TrEMBL record, chains A, B:
Cofactor: Mg(2+); Mn(2+)
Protein name: 3-isopropylmalate dehydrogenase
One annotated GO molecular function: 3-isopropylmalate dehydrogenase activity
The protein's assembly and partners: Homodimer.
Amino acid sequence: MKLNIALLAGDGIGPEVIDQAVKVSDAVAKKFNHEINWRPALTGAAAIDAVGEPYPDETHEICASSDAVLFGAIGHPRFDNDPSAKVRPEQGLLKMRKKLGLFANVRPTFTFPSLLDKSPLKRERIEGTDLVFLRELTGGIYFGEKGRRDEGETAFDNCVYTRAEVQRLAKKGFELAMTRGKKLCCVDKANVLETSRLWRETVQAMEKEYPEVEVSYEFVDAVAMRLVQWPNSYDVLITENLFGDILTDEASVISGSMGLMPSASLGSNIGLFEPIHGSYPQATGLNIANPMATVLSAAMMFENFGLQKEGKAIRDAVNSALNKGIVTEDLADGGKAFGTSEVGDWLSKNI
Amino acid sequence: MKLNIALLAGDGIGPEVIDQAVKVSDAVAKKFNHEINWRPALTGAAAIDAVGEPYPDETHEICASSDAVLFGAIGHPRFDNDPSAKVRPEQGLLKMRKKLGLFANVRPTFTFPSLLDKSPLKRERIEGTDLVFLRELTGGIYFGEKGRRDEGETAFDNCVYTRAEVQRLAKKGFELAMTRGKKLCCVDKANVLETSRLWRETVQAMEKEYPEVEVSYEFVDAVAMRLVQWPNSYDVLITENLFGDILTDEASVISGSMGLMPSASLGSNIGLFEPIHGSYPQATGLNIANPMATVLSAAMMFENFGLQKEGKAIRDAVNSALNKGIVTEDLADGGKAFGTSEVGDWLSKNI
Ligand SMILES: CC(C)[C@H](C(=O)O)[C@@H](O)C(=O)O
Ligand SMILES: CC(C)[C@H](C(=O)O)[C@@H](O)C(=O)O
């Protein structure tokens, strides 16, 4: 296969972890006879500095004409504590999601047997956890009208959803559930929000098309609890943009390391693959960031092209690195800590 | 002191747990020479059934003319899976909060030494946790304009905040921090939401009035993680209505039992005191629900009247019940489980 992959390293540790994913992907391509054409492009604070825009048109053109996007991380502390900043790296991310039509963020949460004790949660609570969140990514309060009134004294954000938006996300959820544990949980706040009532009624109406899927409806506050109490009771969870932002980050704690969790954002066409962690500014340039989440995001990318064996080769390499202790300091637990690029080298050699 | 207390038992296990709080409060009143005039009133599904309204005017008059409100629980499953229900018990709760001006929901999360091992989190992660959430309760997306357009195909919920709303909540937060660990965390999503940027800039502007308080700003998704990773790193957290709903429920898991966590909702005048747990419909009438959260809510009520010794008498009784194993089945751990009313009896005898 010949693959054109847009490569958006972004901010902070983004470039370092992306480098490792490139190495590993190239090793996979070599082994399985594919050709990858990497197409680097600017995004985030790096793009603001270079061209004044976090997601420049040029970057969009590169993404839109590629088969997939591999993404590092976005965000820089100099923007976070300045509520009046006009341009923010995050706007680039949101613009990209919207313009590429990436309406479904897929975030698996699973445990690694060798890392069960790294979790802040007790072993018996998390053993066997294997859940996936499908977070709606191009609607809701992120994209509704927002602004100020009364000379800046009043602020507003509008949350809007259409039935069609809910349907296309829910459809992916039902389909995913059919390939897995056949359980679907719709997370909403239907006792308070009208958008949530639209979500719930839309999903209810779709139930009959998937008679094998057992559907439940839970309030977001209840899920925020149950997720840390009994994570292994869930299979597929679907939810709106903001709830998904909060709950997927919460869920990432289960596995014991954010540095291991990949994600995919899918739409009609081009998929975007990225680690769930942020740009970790304090670690920038230190060669200490864990590249595995980005490497596993590349695995999701191959799998999304239907290249299951290629994905598995990456997952197997990661598992054996974990078992052999070829890990960065976040997982070293007093043992030897390898550098970001050393882990990447080891993984690519072991494909 | 002569106290008029509106008594809103509500739905599900509400009446059972409220009965125990009344017993215990009466014992406290007797011991410390106060007089409590309990004024029962209807709310929730019970009120819908009786008068077609979850927070009838008559109930409001009773609350508004009392010194405080003691509240059980609200909610009934028959409304939850019917997105088209016209009247819902929860509307009663929201109307009550708004009409009584209860803009600050105070939710402490602490651990009980004897129960540390009940938590799904590891002991070393939670030991020493003693944090308080101040959740804004009468604004935001709960109360903004909501509805449908396009013949029901589009739903919307508006989130609105004014600077004055943020200020009065933040003021309570700073003041509370001054009486405790002097740390304040403002939880928002200022990288995406305009209302969050208003929150952040308002709190930033207030910092100089409280030079001793160390203020931090964290995104809601990051807090959803850190809360289960390092809960004992927090002291006072302030946040908007919906984030507070999700995070306070998540935090309640830390202590290992929802059945122990009280809360207060404060405004200008009358306070409302209630357990954080729901109406637990499956347990209704079985005399198995844990009354301690409601009993501890009564302790918060006394303390809010400035009656610290009275509050402490209740807390001491609860602690010794926990130490002696006078507990309901949720805490019995294979040992003897006492009934709801037996626990209430024991507590009131041990005041
Ligand atoms: C950086 C931010 C805008 C983003 C979001 O809220 O979607 C991030 O938290 C995420 O989850 O990808
Ligand atoms: C019942 C519901 C409307 C309510 C809320 O969301 O505020 C509850 O979850 C709470 O936290 O008190």
